[in-house]
Design a protein that fits this description.
Number of helices of chain A: 6
Strand content of chain B: under 5%
Oligomer: heterodimer
Largest sheet of chain A: 5 strands, mixed
Order of helices and strands of chain B: HHHHHHHHH
Number of helices of chain B: 9
Number of domains of chain A: 2
Largest sheet of chain B: none
Number of domains of chain B: 1
Mean pLDDT of chain A: 89
Number of strands of chain A: 10
Shape of chain B: globular
Order of helices and strands of chain A: HHHEEHEEHEEHEEEE
Strand content of chain A: 15-25%
Structural class of chain A: alpha+beta
Distance between the termini of chain B: 19 Å
Radius of gyration of chain A: 28 Å
CATH superfamily of the largest domain in chain A: Oxidoreductase, molybdopterin-binding domain
CATH architecture of chain B: Up-down Bundle
Low-confidence stretches of chain B: 1-7
CATH superfamily of chain B: Transmembrane di-heme cytochromes, Chain C
CATH class of chain B: Mainly Alpha
Largest interface: A-B, 38 and 36 residues
Chain lengths: 253, 204
């Protein structure tokens, strides 16, 4: 009986020692992990798929908040012509000399999706519509901003004219430079959202999106696509070039 | 809550649990906002320098923006809860009142000579009061200028008040600098009086 107790005692001691070591090892491992995490740059934390998923989910939540904040009557501030930035920056995912060179005579704007009159538009057709112009601030997601003057056709008039389903969720744009993006219908119908055909009173130059771009002063720069070839009205989420890589989809300003 | 605070004091509790939670959540939020903000700054620097990428969060502009616009909820909601709890518990009045300019001058004089007493962590001296009130104000400034940068068209009134979008960028940057400066001094003070760290961890 006594032997048995001794044996039990020894076994317990051994197990405890083992557990103790394991606990210590686990503690050390945890400490190393914590230290590692502390020393990691953000890049590595963002690489964690769970973190990534959570951040994306919050970005979708921020889309809804922005749609809620957005007001169709709230106009972006307009400025006098004297404030136009004569060195308005070129900006794209490629360099200026790689901008698409489009022949305006051959150009056709295609319409797709929930639009009743899908006949393609020539550049001349677009210029024949009533034109307006506005001097507004272009705000880039990087933080810089520049004031420019865009002229063209109010997008809402165009959409109504071609019989677009105005209750659809999205309007998407496909561009000649393989760029693509999409916006919410409320912003598409905003009075300052333009099919821009001119910059500072002159035909829209190649670097700013010839032959036409969509100018949206209530959205950040990456939601202002250039060299547009196809406009589609849809209820299926179309995403965007930068949006698919992590930029916020709504991108309002 | 008033009674609660008194009970806390009776039990020798310096910081109630809600305050400690707010403090550490805020510390996390500030860390996220500052490090992701530096990465966003680097995309289009206002001045002739950039922050070392090793010190930033997000890995690239898009990632940093995701962190920043997620962290803003923690920063703002936690900050609001902190203000509400302070107001309704009477802690604000108890900790920060009265503010006396002459006592402040005296405390600054003592602080500069290294003789300012921290002997009672439950009681803030005038320099502490001013520093904490300043950082609350600064956090408010960060949120307001941040709102203008985030939605300058939708919050056009705020934007006008702050002198427009570009001005708000500088304001946001300066307010960040002030926040980082506060944190630096705050950490030095904690290192000098480590008891305050214990108090913020376990409440006493």
């Amino acid at each position: 009986m006594r032997d048995k107790n001794e044996f039990l005692k020894e076994a317990t001691q051994r197990i405890n020692k083992q557990l103790d070591q394991e606990g210590r090892r686990r503690f050390l491992k945890m400490g190393l992990t914590l230290g590692g995490v502390a020393m990691l740059t953000g890049c590595d934390i963002s690489d964690n798929p769970d973190v990534d998923k959570t951040l994306s989910r919050i970005s979708r939540f921020n889309d809804r908040i922005q749609a809620w904040i957005f007001s169709g009557n709230q106009l972006a501030p307009v400025y006098p012509d004297s404030m136009i930035d004569v060195n308005f920056p070129f900006n794209a995912f490629y360099s200026e000399d790689e901008a698409p060179d489009i022949n305006g005579d051959d150009y056709r704007l295609e319409l797709a999706g929930l639009i009743s009159d899908k006949r393609p538009w020539t550049l001349a057709n677009l210029h024949q519509m009533a034109q307006v112009s506005q001097v507004t601030r272009h705000i880039c997601v990087e933080g810089w901003s520049a004031i420019g003057k865009w002229g063209g056709v109010p997008f809402a008039l165009f959409l109504k004219g071609v019989g677009a389903d105005l209750s659809a969720k999205y309007v998407s744009f496909k561009c000649a430079d393989d760029y693509y993006t999409s916006i919410d219908m409320a912003t598409a119908l905003h009075p300052q959202t333009l099919i821009a055909l001119t910059w500072d009173g002159k035909i829209l130059p190649r670097k700013y999106g010839y032959p036409m771009k969509i100018r949206i002063p209530t959205k950040l720069g990456y939601k202002n696509p250039k060299h547009i070839q196809v406009i589609e009205v849809t209820n299926r989420y179309p995403g965007g070039y930068w949006e698919d890589q992590g930029y916020n989809w709504f991108g309002g300003s | 809550m008033m009674q609660n605070t008194m009970q806390n004091t009776a039990r020798g509790l310096i910081h109630p649990l809600w305050l400690r939670l707010c403090h550490w959540l805020n510390a996390l939020a500030v860390l996220i906002m500052v490090t992701s903000g530096w990465r966003i700054y680097n995309a289009s620097p206002l001045f002739n320098f950039q922050f070392a990428n090793e010190w930033t969060l997000g890995g690239w502009l898009g990632g940093a923006l995701q962190w920043h616009f997620a962290g803003m909820w923690l920063f703002a909601v936690n900050g609001l809860l902190y203000l509400l709890c302070n107001l309704f518990s009477g802690r604000f009045q108890k900790k920060f009142w009265p503010l006396s300019p002459s006592a402040l001058l005296q405390d600054i004089y003592l602080a500069v000579r290294g003789k300012l007493s921290h002997s009672n962590p439950a009681h803030y001296n005038m320099v502490q009061k001013l520093a904490y009130l300043f950082v609350i104000f600064d956090a408010g400034l960060l949120i307001i200028s941040g709102l203008v940068l985030w939605k300058s068209v939708q919050f056009s009134l705020l934007s006008t008040l702050l002198g427009g979008y570009d001005n708000a960028r500088y304001l946001h940057f300066y307010a960040m600098t002030a926040m980082v400066g506060f944190v630096a001094i705050h950490l030095i003070m904690v290192a000098l009086v480590p008891r305050t760290l214990l108090a913020m961890l376990r409440g006493r």
